[in-house]
Structure formats: C-alpha cells, structure tokens
Amino acid sequence: MNEKELVKKAQSGDFEAFSLLIEKYKNKIYNLGLKLSGDRHDAEDILQDTFLKAVDNIDKFRGESTFGTWLYAIAVNAVRALHQSRKKAELRPIEEYLPSGHGSGDDTKELFEWGDPHELLEQKELKKVIDDALAEMPDKYSAPFILRYFEDLSVKEVADSMHLSVAAAKSRILRARLALRERLSEVFKEKANERV
Predict the structure, then answer these.
(1) What CATH number does domain 94-195 carry, 1.20.5.320, 3.40.50.150, 1.10.10.10, 2.30.110.10?
(2) CB burial of residue 190 (10 Å; 0-12, 13-18, 19+)
(3) CA distance 35 to 135
(4) How far is CA 178 from each of CA 33, 97, 151, 170, rounded to the nearest angstrom?
(5) Global pTM?
(6) 183 contacts 111 by C-beta, under 8 angstroms
(7) Which residues contact 58 (CB under 8 A, 6 or more apart)?
(8) Is residue 181 predicted with pLDDT exceeding 70?
(9) CB neighbourhood size of 119 (10 A)
(10) pLDDT 10s digits, 119-178
C-alpha cells in the first residue's frame, strides 16, 4: 500500500494505517527534533507532540505537499513552541553569526584555510562543533539548514515545511551556511594556532 492510500485510510479513522505512517517517519522526526533541540528528552517530546498533532489534524491534510513535508512542518512548529515556552535562548541578530563587515566591503574577516577536509570529517570534534554552532543559531536559520542538509529535503520542501517562499528558504539556508562556515573557520584557525 502506498503512502497516499495509507493517508486516506488514516483520514477515515484507520489507526493501523496511521501507525504505519508513524513507523515510516518516527526516526526522521526524532532526529530532526534532536538536531534542533540538542536534547534527547526534548526530541522525544517533539516526536510525541508532532504525532499527537498529526493524529488530531489528519483530516486537515489536503495532500498539497507530501505527508512527510506536512509532518516536518508540524515538528518545526513543535520545536518553536518548546523554545518559546522555555525561553531557551534570546534571538540574536544574524549579523552576530556572520563575518564582521559582511556585505560592507571593509574589515572583512579572512576565512582560514581548513586543510584536508577528509581528515577533518573523520574527527568527532567536527560533528560537535557543527552541532554546537547550529544550536546557537536562531531556529529560523538552523531549521531550514537541518531540513536541507541533514534530512535531504529539497529547497521547495523546506519552504513548504516552514511556510516560507522558496526565496526566503534559500536565503535562510545561505545565512546558516555562512554562519557555520565562519564558526568552523574560527575553530580550525584556533586548532592550527595550538599546534604551532
């Protein structure tokens, strides 16, 4: 049975069909929640909230996007609600995440040469640096980046999931990439200086 048939059955009250849909997406939604929250317990709460809201609102799913994209949108909203309720971090302007002088033409930071990317990718520290940098970013930048590069969604699917235009989704993904690149450059420069 394909996904569209499962969705139709779930919409008509077939809980077994909905269970099959949950089984298909639970790991992806959990991983998204973990990446966006940085906490296993929060990821479990996000997973639970996402599927409870999906059960309650399955009749509102109109099939304009894929079922997975619809679930991602619910999950992203659950993350936002969690962050707002706990006031985990104040939103900081994106300029704090970009190289100084970005776009102004003066006092632009020089990006450090990273060296052999294959060696760097093998280090566990790289994953931690990336996760930490994404956790420090406002959700409006980290969520589209994670959906695009960790969940392998197309830019259009990211835009649909976050209720953005494609141009806005591209812009937010680019800003996250620039901020991440700057953070990685700082870390690798520090490491190179430690070796000297």
Answers:
(1) 1.10.10.10
(2) exposed
(3) 8
(4) 23, 8, 19, 12
(5) 0.61
(6) no
(7) 7, 10, 11, 18
(8) yes
(9) 10
(10) 655 567 777 878 888 888 888 999 999 999 888 889 999 999 888 999 999 999 999 988
Looking from the CA of 22 toward its CB, the CA atoms found within 13 Å total 17
pLDDT at position 172 is 92
Match domain 3-86 to its CATH number in 1.10.1740.10, 3.40.50.300, 1.20.1050.10, 3.60.40.10.
1.10.1740.10
CB 139, CB 147: distance < 8 Å: no
User: Where does residue 106 fall: left (phi above 0), alpha (psi -120 to 50 degrees), or beta otherwise?
Assistant: beta
pLDDT at 102: 46
Residues 12-29, mean pLDDT to the nearest whole number? 90
